[in-house]
UniProtKB/TrEMBL annotation:
It comes from Aminobacter carboxidus. This is Alpha/beta hydrolase. SUPFAM superfamilies: alpha/beta-Hydrolases. Keywords: Hydrolase. Residues 62-177 form the AB hydrolase-1 domain. One of its GO terms (molecular function) is hydrolase activity. Gene3D superfamilies: alpha/beta hydrolase.
Amino acid sequence: MRSFWTAVVIAFVSLFSIAVASAEERWLTLPEPVPMPASTETGYAKVNGIDMYYAVYGAGDPVLLIHGGLGHAEIWSSQVVELSKTHKVIVADSRGHGRSSRTTDPFGYELMASDYLALLDHLKIDKTAIVGWSDGGIIGLDIAMKHPERLTRLYAQAANVTTDGVDPGVETNKTFGAYIERSGRDYAKMSKTPAEYEAFVAQISEMWKTQPNWTKDQLAKITVPTAIVLGDHDEAVTRKHTDYMASIIPGAELIILPNTSHFAMLQAPDEYNKSVLEFIERK
């Protein structure tokens, strides 16, 4: 009998250890987005020479979700489901991404910020909170610096403010490689130019070589309440750089999301949503 219960205990401990190990390694995963809920409005806004896809969900104080490089609006599906219960949530595909078209103009964060401001004008939204991920966070910072009157709060996750904030190891990271591959498949399904993914990546890569490149003085002028956010296992942005950003932007709150990587909104949606809501609803 003793050997039986010993075997049961060993089996339980083994299963528990596997479960703990799996939980600890969620930052290595790249979950698929959940299905998007029903929208209240979708369409294409003509902004800066492009057709920009957008969708609106729910009602209440507005929050604009801006995705990262190579991504698209559906990456935010778990956030849309939760945030739209209490907020008017706007998502869009940045120029050249997803369903939005692009021009031959060089990509730049200022131009992309201008696209989103024009989208807000199209939707007759004077002021909004922004949740930006990666390139989306950089776009949010550009708006915070140059058009603070349009923002209530900025939650900037996995952003960088100079190119040396990017971890060179990202180029060989398996999770990030899987994201690039998935983005290519999504582009082929969504884009009006489905065969041009490589050309699109080449075009936006020219921007990444030199941008962003903001000075301390520029960042120190930000007056919008800002959260600088990073997963503790981020593959693309260094913790040192994130700490620097939080120290330079006046009053910035540093938020480190545990056991997550660059893809925290997919890996830990409940915790991510709680963090976002606690910040954007703060009085």
